[in-house]
Amino acid sequence: MHIVENEQRPDAGQDARRSSLPDNGHGANQSELDALLEDLVAIHVELSQGVMPRAARITGTGHQLAQTVARLEAAIRTTKELLVDSRRSTSDPPARRALSAALQRPASS
């Protein structure tokens, strides 16, 4: 089954709060991660409640929606972990290194 994407504009999907921030080349800062988490949670609410699940049932795309929501939930978990990592790095550099190493290890089954 093919999903039709919305028309793409150059500014589509950009949050005005983040688009004006300078790129310092050192990755996302804490406020950018906070804004990202806020956006991801808002998207999750939109996809998991209201019209979207009903439309997916009607069109037979419920499985695709469930996969998308699962991927979004994984992105939310990762963003939360990055926020914890970011907050620890400002107060405890060794803890940051330990958390980063733990995140890089493959998950045990």
Description:
The protein has 5 helices and no strands. By secondary structure, the protein is mostly helical. The protein has a domain at 28-96. Helix 3 runs antiparallel to helix 4 (62-91) and helix 4 runs antiparallel to helix 5 (93-104). The chain starts with 15 loop residues before the first helix and ends in a 5-residue tail after the last helix.
Helix-strand sequence: HHHHH
Number of helices: 5
Silhouette:
elongated
Q: Can you count the beta strands? A: 0
The structural class is mainly alpha
Stretches with pLDDT under 50, minimum 5 residues: 1-26
Task: Kindly report the average pLDDT value.
Answer: 74
Give the % helix. 55-70%
| Beta-strand content | under 5%
Q: Could you tell me the radius of gyration in angstroms? A: 17 Å
In brief:
By secondary structure, the chain is mainly α. Helix content is 68%, strand content 0%.
Q: Helices, strands, pairings?
A:
Layout: H1 16-19, H2 30-48, H3 51-59, H4 62-91, H5 93-104
Helix pairs in contact: 2-4, 3-4, 4-5
Describe this protein with a few key phrases.
109 residues, 5 helices, elongated, disordered N terminus, mainly alpha
